[in-house]
C-alpha cells in the first residue's frame, strides 16, 4: 500500500466524502496541529530504517530536554567585612566562601563597591558583604568608596572589622571604631596577618581599640578562621533586620561592555540611588555587583560588571581577575545588556563582547549609551557601523539610551522581555518538521558529491538558548545551516536570543 506523502497538506474540506457535509467546520489551527502530528509520526516511522544511538532515541522521545530552573534565594542575615585599605578583607572573604571570587591584589584599593556573596558556616547560611577600604579625609573616587563601606555597615546585621596585626591600630582604624560604635551593630574584631605564634602578641595589643577580644587569623593561610566564624555566628542574628527578601525567580541581567561606557551609571539610574561607584577613571568597577530592581512592575536582578578591556590572556593583575569575574557574571545571568558608546566609533572590542555573550548562550540586548552626547553628523556613521559590523546580530533588540539623564531607559524592560521570551521559546516537534518540510521543498540542499543530503527528522533539544538537532542522511553545508537559522527567525521570531543548530548524520541500516 502506498504511503501518503508527509509533505502534502490537507484542508478540512478534504475530509468530506460522498456529499456528506461535516457537522461543524474544523478550526484552522486544530487542522494544522493534526497535520503536524501526522507528519511527525510519519517521519519517526521513517527513522526506523537508520542506525540511531540510544542518545538519539532519547532525544527524539523528548528525554534530552533540559529545562534550566532559576534558583530561589531567601532572606539571609548580612555580615559585612570592613576596614581600611589593604588589610586583607577580600582575602578573608575568599577564605570564608571557599573560592577565589573577590578580586585580590597586593596594591591597596582594589575593591571599590560593596559586593555580596552567599556563604555558609556550621549549617547556617548568610550573606557576606565585601567592601572597599575605608579612609578618612579623602576625595574623589576614594571618598565614594568610603561612602559605600558606610552604607554596607548600615545595611548589615553584624560586622567583621579587619585590622592588620603586623601594623597595629592606626588613626584610620580608630576612626572606623567610632563609626562602628555609632552604628550600634555587633562587631567582631579580626586581627589579620597573624601567620604564626610570634605575631600573636601584636594581635593582643588590639584590645586597646575597645571592641573586645581580637581574633588572630591568617586569611591567606586559613589559620584561626574557624574560631573567627564561630564568634561571627554568635554575633549574627538568626533573622535579618535589614536584608530585602527576593521574590521568586527574578530574571538576572548582566550589564557588560568596554570600560567607561556607562554600565555603573545605568545601574545607578535604574536603581534610583548611588548604588555603585562611578568615576571618570576607566575601570572603576572591579567586582560584579548585584542589585534587586523593580522595573515595569517586575523584579529584576541587575549585575554591574567590570569593563572588558581586551582578551583575558592579555590582561594582568586586578584587570585579569576582573575579566574572569565578568565572564562568570555573564554565565550566571539570563540576559546581557551590552553597552556601546554611541558617541564614539565602534571598536573590535565591542564586537568581541557581543560575541562573548552569544558564545555563553545568553539572551542579548544592545544598548547604545551616551546618545545625548552624539551629534547629528555622527548618526549616519553609527548606522553604517551597525550595518557592517553587527550584520550577524541583526536579531538583537537595540535600545538608544542615556544613562546620565535617564533618557529612554524605560525602553530597556520591553527589550529585555522580548529577548527572554525568545530565549524560553519552544517549538513543537510537529510544527518544526512541517516548517523544515516546506523549506526543503522550496529550497533543497545543493548537491554534494553528486548526492543530495536529506533531512530525516528535527527536534528542539533545549531552550535557554533554543538548540535544534537535525538528523540528516548527509552533511549540511554551513551556508545551508545559516539559511535554516535565518528562516527560523523569520518564521518564529527568536528576537534577542542566539540559536544553535547541530546536525547528526545517520546512515541506513545495512540489510
From TrEMBL:
Domain EngA-type G: 77-240, 251-424
Binding-site residues, GTP 2: 257-264, 304-308, 369-372
Start and end residues of each stretch annotated as Disordered: 1-39
SMART domains registered for this protein in UniProt: AAA (SM00382)
Record-listed GTP 1 binding positions: 83-90, 130-134, 192-195
Residue spans of biased composition, Polar residues class: 1-10
Domain of life: Bacteria
Assembly description: Associates with the 50S ribosomal subunit.
HAMAP family from the UniProt entry: GTPase_Der
Annotated family: Belongs to the TRAFAC class TrmE-Era-EngA-EngB-Septin-like GTPase superfamily. EngA (Der) GTPase family.
PANTHER family: GTPASE DER
Described purpose of this protein according to its UniProt entry: GTPase that plays an essential role in the late steps of ribosome biogenesis.
Descriptive protein name: GTPase Der
Organism listed in the record: Cellulomonas wangsupingiae
Gene encoding the protein: der
